[in-house]
Amino acid sequence: SFHRILKEEILQGEHLGLGTRTNIYAGVLKVKSAEDEDAGYSSSQDVKVVLKVLGSGHRDISLAFFETASMMRQVSHKHIALLYGVCVRHLENIMVEEFVQFGPLDLLMRRQHSPLGTPWKFQVAKQLASALSYLEDKKLVHGFVCTKNILLARDGVDSEGGPFIKLSDPGIPITVLTREECVDRIPWIAPECVKDSTNLSVAADKWGFGTTLWEICYDGEVPLKDKKLTEKERFYAAECQLATPDCKELAELMTHCMTYDPHKRPFFRAIVRDIDTLEEQNPSIKPAPSQEVD
Ligand code: ATP
Ligand code: MG
């Protein structure tokens, strides 16, 4: 149920980093123009992409890898990164994703010398909530909501127009991760998923959204950074909560989302409404009119 890309259609470039069981490269996709084909000649346009390569040593999880690709192919939203398709190159499976210029949110926040303003943070939170509300309506689960998986098409720091985010793919589904890898994802992974990764549902994305709000409030700090795996496990076992951020409004949303009972977490539709209301009531967090480009 996803578009097949031929290996001749992609060019692999610079190595960008390591994902979970994947290698990430910059690359180029040659996109044929249909109109030109109709006109009897062929031309192609080069699009900058990211190649997420699942190596030949991980063919046992290629089905799970395709599950992620198929979820991403079912979505079309301005705040979700576009997946062009999947390429099978010899024994490797490759997800071909839109290249998002300003890279991941965690790195961007940590790079800043002066703290990012509350309106900036609210805009990011609102855009993320709108993307997740869209997935909720389609009953689709992302599975790994975190600032590392949020990319910026516009950083909105020095430039006009504020930030513009794109939620990236979640990578390999947690159902095929080891117990240790799941525990390592505390506090992003929902508590019910550490108990049993097949508990993965839309409710788990609400928890992940809460943790992501925490990261945004703390300018890209890593929650539970110095904790060992056993300490992380104990954190959930004792139903602990992360420190409450100063930003009162986002803190309240965060705590709602990080409720241990998955049934008591709010709907993303309600979260989007709450953020709108907060902006209306608080002129200081409302972006200037020129920034409302979306
Ligand atoms: P996987 O999803 O397979 O686990 P990953 O997406 O988690 O992989 P990341 O650590 O998020 O891997 O990405 C590695 C690096 O690649 C990031 O730090 C970022 O710089 C870059 N990157 C990933 N996706 C994109 C993208 N769509 N556009 C631009 N850069 C990207
Ligand atoms: Mg990722």
Walkthrough of the structure:
With 294 residues, the chain is of the alpha+beta class. Helices cover 35% and strands 19% of the residues. The chain has a six-stranded mixed beta sheet with strand order 1-5-6-4-3-2. Adenosine-5'-triphosphate (ATP) binds at residues 16-17, 19-20, 22, 24, 50, 52, 81, 97-100, 103-104, 148-149, 151, 168-169, 171.
The count of strands amounts to 8
Q: What's the helix-strand series?
A: EEEHEHEEHHEEHHHHHH
Helical fraction equals 25-40%
Distance between the termini: 30 Å
List cofactors, ions and other ligands: adenosine-5'-triphosphate, magnesium ion
Spatial arrangement of strands, main beta sheet: 1-5-6-4-3-2
Q: How would you describe the shape?
A: globular
Strand content: 15-25%
* Average pLDDT: 93
Spatial extent as radius of gyration: 20 Å
Observed structural traits:
294 residues, alpha+beta, two-stranded antiparallel sheet, globular, binds adenosine-5'-triphosphate, binds magnesium ion
Layout of strands and helices, then pairs:
Elements: E1 4-5, E2 10-18, E3 22-32, H1 34-38, E4 44-54, H2 62-73, E5 83-89, E6 92-98, H3 105-111, H4 118-137, E7 150-154, E8 164-167, H5 179-184, H6 191-195, H7 202-217, H8 229-237, H9 248-257, H10 268-281
Parallel strand pairs: 1-5
Antiparallel strand pairs: 2-3, 3-4, 4-6, 5-6, 7-8
Helix pairs in contact: 4-7, 4-10, 7-9
The structure holds adenosine-5'-triphosphate (ATP) and magnesium ion (MG).
